[in-house]
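Saturday, quiet lab. Running sequence design on the structure tokens for the scaffold JK sent over.
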């Protein structure tokens, strides 16, 4: 059976193709937005990694809200996934709208055990984006590891971090989590807020908090 080239595939078709070729790394150009999908040899992990900023020349565009919308549409159909890594670091066109698209689909991945979100240097992310993330974490009772990086998102405040803390405190299976909010002004407040969430997380074994300003 001859498989089509990646350039001939839409994003939905690509998810079908991965069931045939599971050991490879794919890169497609989605409306000139670079989208990387990694499929490991050990598919028990069912891991997917998305990197939104793969600019190699000045004609390439980074991911924006529309990219995340299309990606999220396909993502929501895979409810057996256990590991998800989203990296939109430095994608200046991504805002709360794109994060909201993503969060509403992530909530359907009820088998998810590991979630990593990097929106560092996404200057259009505000507290509203973290509120959406908080609301959509609740169904993910299987989560054991989370890593959130919102460094240098200058529109964030301690209120947004409070939203996130309230969302995390309901994840009673959580064993490891990392919060990175470097380059922001509310370091001391942030540590207090996260401390309040920790008292309910009795299974946590590993903790990383970075509020370096």
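Result came back. Writing it out in full:
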């Amino acid at each position: 059976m001859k498989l089509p080239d990646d350039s001939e595939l839409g994003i939905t078709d690509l998810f079908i193709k991965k069931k045939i070729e599971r050991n490879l790394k794919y890169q497609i150009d989605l409306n000139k937005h670079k989208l990387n999908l990694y499929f490991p040899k050990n598919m028990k992990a069912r891991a997917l990694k998305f990197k939104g900023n793969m600019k190699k020349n000045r004609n390439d565009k980074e991911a924006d809200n529309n990219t995340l919308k299309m990606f999220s549409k396909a993502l929501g159909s895979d409810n057996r996934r256990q590991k998800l890594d989203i990296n939109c670091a430095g994608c200046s066109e991504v805002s709360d709208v794109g994060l909201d698209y993503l969060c509403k689909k992530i909530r359907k991945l009820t088998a998810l055990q590991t979630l990593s979100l990097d929106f560092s240097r996404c200057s259009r992310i505000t507290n509203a984006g973290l509120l959406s993330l908080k609301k959509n974490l609740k169904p993910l009772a299987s989560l054991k590891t989370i890593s959130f990086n919102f460094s240098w998102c200058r529109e964030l405040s301690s209120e947004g971090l409070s939203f996130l803390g309230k969302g995390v405190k309901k994840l009673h299976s959580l064993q490891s989590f990392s919060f990175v909010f470097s380059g922001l002004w509310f370091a001391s407040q942030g540590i207090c807020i996260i401390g309040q969430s920790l008292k309910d997380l009795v299974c946590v074994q590993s903790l990383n908090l970075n509020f370096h300003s």
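Notes for JK: Strands lie at 25-30, 33-38, 47-51, 83-87, 114-118, 145-149, 176-180, 206-210. The two ends are 55 Å apart (CA to CA). Ask whether to fix the surface positions before the next round.
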